[in-house]
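seq/struct pair 1
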Amino acid sequence: MLMRNQGPFYVYILASARNGTLYVGVTNDISRRGFEHRTGAGAVFTRRYAVHRLVWMEPYERIVDAIAREKQIKGWNRAWKLRLIEKDNSQWRDLYEDIAGKD
């Protein structure tokens, strides 16, 4: 099976609310994955805790780089994740509306 290894791939963080529950994931289609999370077709965790606000994302050309970054962020403490989000999105704006249908 031949796998597509060219991006874009995205590492992303979802939140239930400002300073709420966080979820870190990786995808090759950010608009589709965002839709899945919003409609309950995403991860069980995001469905259970209503985590569907896209508050941070970072693109990568190679899947191996995206997965490495996802693992790195998942290993961080909460304060580091909050700082990462607030560096580029201090208002915790839902970025999904900006990217829906554009991937």
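seq/struct pair 2
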Amino acid sequence: MSPNLAQLHPYPFQKLRQLFADITPNPALKPINLSIGEPKHPTPQLIKDALVANFDGLSAYPATQGSEALRTAIGHWARRRYGIGIDPATEILPVNGSREALFAFAQAIINTGTDHKPVVLSPNPFYQIYEGAALLAGAEPYYVNCTASNRFQPDWDAVPDDVWARTQLVFVCSPGNPTGAVASLGDWQKLFALSDRHGFVIASDECYSEIYFGKDKPLGGLEAAAKLGRDYTNLVMFSSLSKRSNVPGLRSGFVAGDAKLMAQFLLYRTYHGCAMSPTIQAASAVTWDDETHVEDNRREYAAKFEAVTPRLQTVLDVSLPDASFYLWARVPIDDAEFAKRLYAQEHVTVLPGSFLAREAHGVNPGCSYVRIALVASQQECLEAAERIVRFVQSL
């Protein structure tokens, strides 16, 4: 077995199960789980209909590059959403969800045949795939803390020059998981300048881009490059239908950007054997072409945040995020103890923030926070909020 497997940490939800192992929650209360970022809104009917209408696709082997129809639909969506042009022939690849692609991309990018061990930079807290992808690619993860004092953005200025010199890949998550923070044009400009200086690749994870509040749409990485008059050199974006369209089980997304990187990533994927089913491709093309269901979905999330956030603000340090469906709430006691006691007393599950981060530079930036995923129905989210308020008041 690969020795790199021994470096992997337990996944946050495994740690959560261990935390709750000896607890019997209050049996008088219905369980409400707000720990997992899994969309619970109904899957739109047009997607179900598209799947049924394209069952014939099951009889054919899929092309790794995906169908022209799907790549064209993705390109049209990118133009509508970001006002940018992406060549469907050379700059777009359909993938089986952004998680699969984020992991695979690191395996294709990292070059271990250098004099110094390669580094992969990750925001901290972070989506655990970034760390696992780096470790299994033979690289060293380097954690860049995201704290309230820096708008929950990675503090790129704190990274030493000798680390930048070894950096081959930087993961960016905007809107962020778990904080919901969105990178500004100035943030992107700073990171692009560092990429130009040190030659690393930027992988921009944008799977929460369509869940936002108000008129300001989250800025994307390729969009930022276009606004700054740049091309897509050393830059790729990852997007997904899972959150946008409430289809996490469809496993459908795309990677787009630097044509040279995309050509090499396509070569890798040809051998990796991860082509998307033609049936899924056909349904995905229909889904990227429709915005009505996305607007309905966004309104439903906005209504939940509008109802829940003010109630939680009476007892917790929490505010409306820039985007995403998470609340990143500061709690008055140890975050793991908070989650444990809340589960026992109120049968509500939230995720300790420290489980989503690593201790780096003398601090675990997830400590004293919990992540609350407003993915359940509005009624359940409101009920959970009332129970959380009752619990905090009892402390």
